[in-house]
Amino acid sequence: MSENKLAGQFFDAAIGLLQRVRDEEAGNITAAGSLLADTVADGGRIFVFGAGHSSLPAQDVVYRAGGLALINLLAVPGVVGLDVMPATLGSALERVNGLAGAVLDTSPVQAGDVLIVISLSGRNPLPVEMAMNARALGVRVIGVTSLAYAEHTRSRHSSGTFLKDHCDLVIDSKIDIGDAELTADGIAAPFAPASTVVTSALMQAVVAAAAGELAARGIDPPMLRSGNVDGGHEWNGRLLREYGDRIFFRH
């Protein structure tokens, strides 16, 4: 089997998943966008969290061209990127009980805010407790996860629950357990994960829905421009000053 054929099969698989998410999660995406719009209009703050590779779609909506300026990354040291050595430490930290509570207690997150928790499996203690503790603080939680894991795996949290069980709204990424779309002769393990492609698209769709909802209410959504186009830095500087009390990635 040629490399080109496998590459094409991956694109086909990713496109199929994107179409499923677009069609089957449209209502949840719209609802999530409305929740973000409510928060922006009401003066609240927006945070997003993901561990391991689930941190990639979280980071993709923070301080970026074409993005909503008010989305902040809720960072947990050691789990956000692969700059930690050994890289396996991040996976281990996802299973540490109590870490999420400690992070929230020292974060600016407060009642009335929105927290988006991204976790493909939704089974580890860190994302489960992040959602549980956030809701206990009066924070509205959106979970972006694969419901297949809750159907076919066991939770690693002592409660036996998954991320989906502690959210005000859940968006299903439709990713199958194992996060590998392809198999082929001569390759022992399944390969070609699509969770980052699909989840990043989901997050951008939610932001787009929020921007459209704000505009429909007559509110100009605070969207960042590219710093690589003329006037971009000046535009962004104005937004960062105007909404400085709701933006936490500058300090």
UniProtKB/TrEMBL annotation:
Residues 36-219 form the SIS domain. It comes from the Bacteria. Gene3D superfamilies: Glucose-6-phosphate isomerase like protein, domain 1 (3.40.50.10490). This is UPF0309 protein NQU55_05275. GO terms for molecular function: carbohydrate derivative binding. Belongs to the UPF0309 family. It comes from Streptomyces telluris. One of its GO terms (biological process) is carbohydrate derivative metabolic process.
